[in-house]
Design brief:
The complex is a heterodimer of chains A (91) and B (504). By secondary structure, chain A is of the alpha+beta class. Helices cover 51% and strands 23% of the residues of chain A. Chain A has a two-stranded antiparallel ribbon with strand order 1-2. In chain B, strand 2 and strand 3 form a beta hairpin. Chain B is elongated, with a radius of gyration of 32 Å. The chains are: A alpha+beta (91), B alpha+beta (504). Chains A and B meet through helix 1, helix 2, helix 3, strand 1 and strand 2 of A and strand 5, helix 4, helix 5, helix 10 and helix 11 of B. Strand 1 (65-74) of chain A pairs parallel with strand 5 (113-134) of chain B.
Chain lengths: 91, 504
């Protein structure tokens, strides 16, 4: 019985995830190519997504972009000093 | 002392070459320093906030490790692979008397008067120590010991602390001063939310602040992070995602030569104008999204914009501390009342559409249930009609081969034999219809992280492909195809699990 119920839970979860991802496809269709064009202009891409190195936006603030810092010392020498940036969850 | 603040003379931020001004949003127009402390998503944070004398002077220390949220992986992986992305932020501050402006318009007067309230605890002044990680093991050990000691101090009960600022300062000053590198940002936060952040000149004398790459981050990037940290300690993110707390700008002030009133005015107008523009930009962005959630958020931000425009936007604080804040309306203000009406109208329209969607869903559900019920009742009637009861109770089927159809046998047999597969199969189309008509299931808290990860990954692929081919339409289709591939993989897993369940 436990196996049946576990299988059922997995079955339902995969189904719901499929619905959710298909929802993302529909959301992309609703936004159209303009959304990708906007991301290209912002400098977003695979590398920026993986490393958080999106270039600075044109505006001083935006709900679309989040920022962080990488900074590390070695004794009293600065080894890494970098602004990180990526698209926010609002996009 | 990291919490000292002069009572007269020139404001300390105005003499610094690295100085910023901004606003900590508060809808009431007055911050409550007794509520300074961290809530919400940030782990590894500790706060001790207590009064130290009968005047109500507060001594506050807050420490937390903050980690950059700009990577697609979990924080624990970022800590392992990108240790430089995490820094310790320690706030040490105490309250001081300050002049708090408010506007009062007397009957018949053309413009409002600035009145000043001398608030005994109107200013929270102190220092935020940003302490990045250190590769040097001995320095790293000293850093760790000091931060652990501070955490212990902050974990005590409030009644056990004498003056938390002095106690934390003692830890920082142990041995030969600070023997691990840390960047000290001074700040002054007024009760109205007006905040000043600056670097003291002696910071520039340290060798490492002049190293390549470090200077820009220390002078431009970290002040913004200090601002986000201050906002995190003082407010909850009701109207935006917690990671997106960069909605408002921190404006850099130009250096202020002695008695240069024009430059002073230029600075004061600049940060208030940038803040107003920032608020207006957020409202417009949410308004354009045109979803109930975004429109509600726009209304929330509008309330903050109104609060800012009511007082802080119309008053400027002179660089000489003895001088009272002055009325200043040389700032293009916004007509938020009409924006509010427009946002409300849009929200009403959206709600009306959603209500229609719910009614449609209710109708479709009723229709599906009614159709199935009628079909199963008709089937029962057919079976009842063709069966005959013998005297000994045994049932005999008469001509049922021609009455009960093969299709009915197949459907009913499958439902009876595999109730869980049937339930799961019904769940998926129901979720799909619900998701389209009523509420996006991507917003479910469990699904949100997964959906955002996938969405960002697909768009990153799309943007890269679009850039490579210099054509966003190709990028758009790359995004769609990558998402469809994931959907197909999930549907395949779904079907495979269904067949496994059926075969058991």
């Amino acid at each position: 019985m436990i196996v049946e119920i576990s299988l059922f839970v997995l079955f339902a979860v995969f189904g719901l995830l499929a619905v959710m991802v298909f929802g993302l496809v529909l959301a992309q269709f609703r936004q159209g190519p303009a959304a990708i064009s906007d991301l290209i202009n912002k400098g977003f891409g695979i590398r920026a997504w993986l490393n958080g190195d999106m270039p600075a936006p044109d505006q001083s603030t935006s709900i679309d972009v989040i920022e962080g810092v990488e900074f590390e010392f070695d004794g009293f020498d600065v080894k890494i000093a970098r602004q990180t940036r990526t698209i926010s969850d609002e996009v | 002392m990291p919490t000292s603040f002069p009572t007269d003379g020139t404001a300390p931020w105005s003499t610094s070459s690295v100085s910023y001004a901004g606003w900590v949003p508060n809808v009431l127009g007055h911050l409550s320093f007794s509520l300074v402390g961290l809530k919400g998503r940030w782990g590894h944070s500790r706060t001790l906030n207590h009064t130290v004398d009968s005047n109500g002077t507060r001594s506050i220390a807050v420490r937390q490790n903050r980690i950059a949220q700009d990577y697609p992986y979990w924080d624990f992986l970022v800590r392992i692979f990108k240790p430089a992305a995490e820094q310790s932020y320690l706030l040490v501050a105490s309250t001081h008397p300050a002049k708090i402006p408010f506007l009062k318009k007397t009957n018949g007067a053309e413009q409002a008067d600035v009145r000043v309230f001398k608030d005994g605890q109107g200013l929270l002044a102190g220092t935020v120590f940003v302490t990045p990680k250190n590769r040097d093991k001995s320095v790293s050990k000293i850093r760790k010991i000091a931060l652990n000691q501070i955490d212990k101090l902050l974990s005590r009960r409030t009644s056990d602390a004498t003056d938390i600022c002095a106690e934390v300062s003692d830890v920082l000053g142990q041995g030969n001063g600070m023997n691990f590198p840390s960047i000290a940002y001074r700040f002054a936060l007024f009760r109205t939310g007006e905040v000043r952040i600056w670097l003291e000149e002696q910071t520039h004398l340290l060798d490492w602040t002049r190293q390549a790459g470090a200077k820009k981050v220390i002078e431009e990037t970290f002040p913004k992070q200090v601002y986000y940290f201050l906002k995190d300690t003082l407010h909850t993110h009701y109207h935006h995602e917690p990671d997106s707390d960069q909605l408002l700008p921190l404006t850099q002030m130009k250096e202020l030569p002695d008695n240069d009133e024009d430059r002073e005015k230029e600075n004061e107008v600049a940060w208030r104008r940038e803040t107003l523009w920032g608020l207006a930009r957020v409202i417009s962005s949410y308004r354009r999204s045109n979803t109930i959630k975004s429109l509600r958020r726009a209304q929330g931000v509008l309330a903050y914009a109104d609060a800012f425009q009511a007082t802080v936007a119309r008053v400027f604080r002179p660089a000489t501390l003895e001088n009272d804040p002055k009325f200043d309306d040389d700032l293009t203000t916004y007509d938020f009342a009409h924006t509010k009406q427009s946002v409300s109208a849009l929200e009403g329209l959206r709600t009306w559409r959603n209500t229609g969607g719910v009614q449609l869903l209710a109708g479709l559900t009723a229709f599906a249930l009614a159709a199935f019920t009628v079909w199963s009742s008709a089937l029962r009637l057919k079976i009842a009609k063709c069966s005959n009861q013998k005297a000994d109770g045994a049932e005999v089927l008469l001509n049922c081969g021609s009455v009960a159809s093969q299709r009915a046998d197949l459907v009913l047999g499958w439902i009876v034999d595999h109730p869980l597969v049937f339930a799961g199969s019904m769940l998926v189309p129901s979720a799909f219809i619900y998701s389209i008509i009523v509420w996006d299931i991507r917003d479910l808290p469990i699904a949100r992280k997964f959906s955002r990860f996938l969405s960002a990954a697909a768009r990153a692929i799309g943007a890269s492909v679009g850039r490579k081919f210099s054509n966003p339409i190709i990028g758009f289709f790359a995004t769609i195809i990558s998402l469809l591939l994931v959907t197909a993989a999930l549907l395949f897993s779904f079907a495979y699990l269904g067949s496994v369940m059926q075969s058991r």
